[in-house]
UniProtKB/TrEMBL annotation:
Keywords: Kinase, Transferase. Pfam families: PfkB. Residues 29-320 form the Carbohydrate kinase PfkB domain. InterPro entries: PfkB_dom, Ribokinase-like. This is Carbohydrate kinase family protein.
Length: 337
C-alpha cells in the first residue's frame, strides 16, 4: 500500500489589507497609517504558503471558495506562485472574496475588521472526491464558515460530518478555530467535531472560551495549570492524537494517555515584532509538518514555535516564512528548555 503524503488545507480564504498605524485612536479620532500592503489570509492560505516556503517537498492542496473579483484573482495567483494545487478552489458570483482590514499598532498587536464574503457559502459539495493520496486534512476556521457551522441531525454540525467523512477516507484530520471573545457558540459548534479529529491546534484564548477557564493570570502571563486542564478536557471530548494550546510565551502539548508538557517559545522583544498577523497559522503549519513527518510531539511544537517566530518578524502572514533548513538550523543553535 502506497504511503500517503501531502497536506490539504481547507476553509477560510481571504485577503488581508494590512495597515501599520501610529496608535489605536480614541473613538471618533484619526490615526495615521504609516504603511499598507495586501497579503493572503485565512487558515488554509497561511498554512499552505508557510509550508510551501519551507520547501519540504510536500504535496500541497487548497480547498475553498473565492469571489469573481480582483481579490480572488490575487489569491489564485499566490497559490500558483508557490506551486500549491488550486484545482479545488472554486469561484462564485454570489459573494465577493472574503476580506479583512488589519490594523497593527507599534507593539505588534492587531485588530481585524472582517467581511466574511464567499467563505459563508463554502459547503460539503466542495469536498467531494479529494485526492486520497494526501495524508492530512486541515480545516480552519470554525465559527467563520457559516454553511459548515450549520446543524446536522446525525453529526451535530456539518463541519463534524465533513471531518468524519475525511477520517473515513483515511485522512488524518486537523482543526483550528477563530478567536472570538464571548462567543456562546464555541461549545455547541466545536464539541461535535472533536471526536472526528486527530489534531487540534488552538490558542489559549480559544481554549479559555471552550473550557470556561481563565488562561491568562493576573499579571497577563499564561495560566499553565488551566491551559493543561483545558487540553485534558479537549482530549476527553474525543481528540484522538494531539491537542496543542499555544500562546506567545509557549505551548502545552498533550497526547491521550500521556503526561502533557509545556514548551516555552523563543522570546522576541516588542521592538523585534513587526506584526503578529498569521503567527498562529505559521505555528500550525510547523506543527502539521511535524505530524506529517512523524516527529515527536515536542519536536513538532519546537518546529511550530520556530515558524511562528519567523512570522512575527514580518508585517504579513507569509513574508517571514523560512525554509526547512533554516528552521532546523535555528532550532539546533537555540535549544529550548
Amino acid at each position: 500500500m502506497m504511503e500517503r503524503r501531502g497536506i490539504i488545507a481547507a476553509g477560510n480564504m481571504l485577503v488581508d489589507h494590512v495597515h501599520q498605524i501610529v496608535q489605536w485612536p480614541e473613538r471618533g479620532w484619526l490615526a495615521e497609517i504609516t504603511h499598507s500592503e495586501r497579503a493572503t489570509g485565512g487558515a488554509p492560505l497561511n498554512v499552505l504558503l508557510t509550508l510551501a516556503k519551507m520547501r519540504a517537498g510536500l504535496p500541497l492542496q487548497a480547498v475553498g471558495l473565492v469571489g469573481d473579483d480582483h481579490d480572488g484573482d490575487y489569491i489564485l495567483a499566490m497559490l500558483d506562485q508557490y506551486h500549491v494545487n488550486r484545482q479545488r478552489v472554486q469561484r462564485t458570483t454570489f459573494a465577493p472574496t472574503s476580506m479583512s482590514q488589519v490594523m497593527t499598532d507599534p507593539s505588534g498587536q492587531r485588530t481585524f475588521f472582517h467581511s466574511p464574503g464567499a467563505n459563508r457559502l463554502l459547503d460539503l459539495p466542495a469536498f467531494d472526491r479529494l485526492d486520497q493520496s494526501m495524508k492530512i486534512f486541515h480545516l480552519g476556521y470554525l465559527l467563520l464558515l457559516d454553511s459548515l457551522d450549520k446543524p446536522d441531525d446525525e453529526y451535530g454540525t456539518r463541519s463534524a460530518r465533513l471531518l468524519a467523512q475525511m477520517r473515513e477516507l483515511g485522512f488524518q484530520t486537523s482543526l483550528d478555530l477563530v478567536s472570538r471573545k464571548g462567543d456562546p457558540r464555541y461549545q455547541p459548534l466545536v464539541l461535535p467535531a472533536l471526536r472526528h479529529l486527530d489534531y487540534l491546534v488552538i490558542n489559549e484564548l480559544e481554549a479559555g472560551e471552550f473550557s470556561g477557564l481563565p488562561t491568562r493570570d493576573d499579571q497577563d502571563g499564561p495560566a499553565i495549570a488551566n491551559i493543561a486542564a483545558a487540553a485534558a478536557e479537549l482530549l476527553a471530548a474525543g481528540v484522538k492524537a494531539r491537542v496543542v494550546i499555544h500562546c506567545p510565551e509557549g505551548a502545552w502539548g498533550q497526547e491521550p494517555g500521556e503526561e502533557g508538557g509545556w514548551i516555552p517559545s523563543w522570546r522576541l522583544s516588542q521592538e523585534e515584532i513587526v506584526g503578529s498577523v498569521g503567527a498562529g497559522d505559521a505555528f500550525c503549519a510547523g506543527f502539521l509538518y511535524g505530524c506529517h513527518d512523524s516527529l515527536s510531539l515536542a519536536e513538532s511544537i519546537r518546529m511550530a514555535h520556530a515558524c511562528a517566530r519567523a512570522s512575527l518578524l514580518a508585517a504579513n502572514a507569509i513574508d517571514g516564512a523560512k525554509n526547512l533548513a533554516e528552521l532546523q538550523h535555528f532550532i539546533e543553535e537555540n535549544p529550548l528548555a
